[in-house]
Hints:
about 0% strand
Amino acid sequence: MPAAISTTITMMMMREPVASPSFLAMAGLDPAMAKASALAPPMSPSMQQPMHPSAPSPIPEHTYQAQPQGLLNLLAWLSPGFPTGAFAYSHGLEWAVEAGDISDANTLQAWVADILTYGSGRNDAILLRHAYRAACNSAALDQLAAFAAAIAPSRERLTETLDQGTAFLRAVQAWGCPEMPDPIAYPVAVGALAGWHRIEEHAIAAAYVQAFASNLISAAVRLIPLGQTAGLQVLAAIQPSVLRTAHETAAATLDDIGGCAFRADLASMLHENQYTRLFRT
């Protein structure tokens, strides 16, 4: 079954994006709602109705950007030290190292760039942006969370995103957050929280993709092994891919979800059968 799901998802990128109501329906997502909100910009803060008693009060439109408070939130929420358990997941990279696909800085850079451009990194950015726009719409957020879980290409990928999302949701209670489904996929949780706190959308998208790439590189530093300096060089070299992914997903609809990073999807399926493992995925 995981292979069939992976094939369905990855083959979607082999054609021009078109409306896919049947695919959305499989995930329990209302196609009409998805279409209506796909390209809609975030509501003006003055139009949003906070769903949490401690929600921040409306702020003027001209201050709706990455202010110092929002920057501090991003630095905290996406820090490697934030208790999401991200250090325990390699996103299938552990299998790729054992198989010889990743053996040095160059092969690591190519692997991460492909995931960001053609695989789950791009899909996560799309899900995050839609969650950001649905932050004050609990019905839309519930449907998006169900959709995010339905498109996971393997059992380990599903575990990875739900476990991190649920841990993130518990940890951010100190900041106050909207009502969210539990469990919830990680990018949906991050996007909804950022939208509810009115952090600029492009800032959170770029920061999330950067954190996604950083976690893969951190796993590789421990697995290859790769020195910290080489790992930082890969992180610096991957930034154009980070920015491009964040930028290109700004107008993406849920019909644009898909990918052709076949090897990475297979790695997530084969990882659970490895004889020795350091990571959960």
